[in-house]
Amino acid sequence: MDSLTEVYQCEIKPEWVDYNSHLNDAYYALVFSLAGEALYDALGLGEQWRQQQNRTIFTLDARTRYLREVHLGAKLTIKAQLLASDSRRMHFLLYMYADDGKVLRATSEQVVVCIDPTVTRAAAFDTDAQQRISDLLQQHLHAAKPATVGRPLGL
Question: Which UniProt keywords are given for this protein, alphabetically ordered (predicted)?
Answer without folding.
Answer: Oxidoreductase
